[in-house]
Amino acid sequence: MKYVLVSGGVISGVGKGIIASSTGLLLKTTGLKVSSIKVDPYINIDAGTMNPKEHGEVFVLDDGGEVDLDLGNYERYLNITLTRENNITTGKIYKHVIERERKGDYLGKTVQVVPHVTDAIQEWIERVAKLPVDDTKEEPDVCIIELGGTVGDIESMPFVEAMTQLRRRAGKNNFIQIHVSYIPLINGEQKTKPTQQAIKMVRSAGLIPDLIACRCEVPLEPSTVDKLARFCQVELEQVVVVRDMPSIYQVPVLLEEQGLVPLLADVLKLGDMELSKSLIAKGANIWHQWKALTIKDTRFLDPVNIVLVGKYTELHDSYLSVIKSLEHSAMRCRRALKLIWVDSEHLELKTQEKEPANYHKAWHDVCTADGILVPGGFGYRGTEGMMAAAKRARENGTPYLGICLGMQIAVIEYARNLCGITDASSEEFREAPSDNKVIVFMPEIDKETMGGTMRLGRRPTIWQEGSEWSKLRALYGQQKEIHERHRHRYEVNPKYIEKLSQAGLNFVGKDDKGERMEIIELKNHPWFVGVQYHPEYLSRVLDPSRPYLGFVAASAKCLDEITKQMGWKKDGLVNGTNGVNGADDGTHF
């Protein structure tokens, strides 16, 4: 097993995840089988209970694991399926060690950070790195390990020590470290001192960076690169410049142009490995498609204006997978995505009284948008503004996509304005008490425990009889069922299904028992769709999520064209397998 460790210094949030994902993609395009592991030094068992405004979105995997958003980058770039085991946290490791100690596995020894915790980290990595992650069902050749946070943080030290030991344990030519550091630009001068100090700290901790990836706003001057190489004691070619690009999907191309693959191949002796000719050919085809899709000047593309009406708009990473899904779809539609952020509270009447400028600005954005998106979320705050946006979309023929809470919002709005249930609400909205709760808590969910108790993971949705007219179903390929990832506690109240259906709200998709409403769609509308699942978790750069693709295409007025381009056959999907149990002709990896 070959390991590529990606660590960071100076500051956090410099793009370790994108560099790790891009490195994995470049290795995969050479025919290698690649896996990924993310190490997060926080004590939480998983990311499920974290505030999205602080930590960003929670990414959900097939097995229901609630993990760090960087695992979403790995899956999107590498088109692999990871498990909750691929996300290691301090909480998981200490829980594992303590459970072993309680069982007596350490034979009465004093349990310490070194060697017991560090050994547990290494054993976890070695075990998970070997798990198959793609359709080959074979052990990966390379595992990309991203060490979260910055080297030098107290909470990271056990993992740093474990990585130092893993390097020795893996053996010569089986381990390489890429250290990501930020090069600030102050008064027009590129400063290298922070990176010099970061490299010294990394080395003092026992790690030896083989490559230094320098994050910067503008290309580094040759003198800056030379200075970094000289004072960090590496060769010039070991300094990789990762400047800001128009699109993060161009970062792999930037790294390739600087010879990252030959550098990795030289250190890891990749040329000595026997690779499948079919995987090499497939990798070359993937790389050709990737460059053709991502290296475009969006200035010459027609724009599509999408307004996102949410409640966590202060931190855009709260909706990271949503943003990526929209980007994937816009690229497929050959449009330049213009994403407009609207705080849902700004659409409410109380804002008109207190902050009229914000109120009128928000409504101007909603009324002039090509499409309206209401994503997932929790709690009552801002939901009245979301309902106002959904009503606007329904009445004015503006394409609408509701995800999870966004679907429930559409159901409540429909019940209020077309079913005569004027006080329709959700059991979640305790601040708005009502006897007509059209959205209720799922009976099997634990109401007391927060972490890991939602309806999570990949589950089937069955298309209902008579739904052949559905625009969304056409994009999925008229399959009888689809599989998408879920994360929710509430559902449409079965008591109101008949009344809502009679009023024209079509429940075109249900769960495998026919009890839980999964998809709603309006028939005589350009695109009005709500889904209980989170399709953004399965969207890929070369294989966009179907609900998002249809939404963006309808907003760009090219839905018919995109539906025809998907190239369906009776035996399944030809141009991809996103959310579908279909056949893949290999044009997507």
Explained architecture:
With 589 residues, the protein is of the alpha/beta class. It has 2 domains: 2-292, P-loop containing nucleotide triphosphate hydrolases (Rossmann fold); 298-443 and 488-565, Rossmann fold (3-Layer(aba) Sandwich). Helices cover 37% and strands 20% of the residues. The strands form 5 sheets. It has a 9-stranded mixed beta sheet with strand order 13-12-14-15-23-22-21-18-19, with helices on both faces. The chain has a 7-stranded parallel beta sheet with strand order 5-2-6-1-7-10-11, sandwiched between helices. A 3-stranded mixed beta sheet has the order 16-17-20, with helices on one face. A hairpin with a 6-residue loop joins strand 22 (517-521) and strand 23 (528-531). The radius of gyration is 25 Å and the shape is globular. Residues 568-576 and 581-589 have low confidence and may be disordered. It comes from Patellaria atrata CBS 101060. Residues 2-270 form the CTP synthase N-terminal domain. Pathway: Pyrimidine metabolism; CTP biosynthesis via de novo pathway; CTP from UDP: step 2/2. InterPro entries: Class_I_gatase-like, CTP_synthase, CTP_synthase_N, GATASE, GATase1_CTP_Synthase, P-loop_NTPase. Belongs to the CTP synthase family.
- Percent of residues in helices comes to 25-40%
What is the terminal separation in angstroms? 22 Å
The appropriate CATH architecture of the largest domain is 3-Layer(aba) Sandwich
CATH class label of the largest domain: Alpha Beta
Q: Which class of secondary structure composition applies to the elements?
A: alpha/beta
**Main sheet summary:** 9 strands, mixed
Strand order of the biggest β-sheet: 13-12-14-15-23-22-21-18-19
Number of domains: 2
**Got a strand count?**
23
Shape from CA axes? globular
Task: Tell me the strand percentage band.
Answer: 15-25%
Residue-averaged pLDDT: 91
What is the name of the CATH topology of the largest domain? Rossmann fold
What is the rounded Rg? 25 Å
Going by CATH, the homologous superfamily of the largest domain would be P-loop containing nucleotide triphosphate hydrolases
Which spans have pLDDT < 50 for at least 5 consecutive residues?
568-576, 581-589
Oligomer: single chain
Q: Total helix count? A: 20
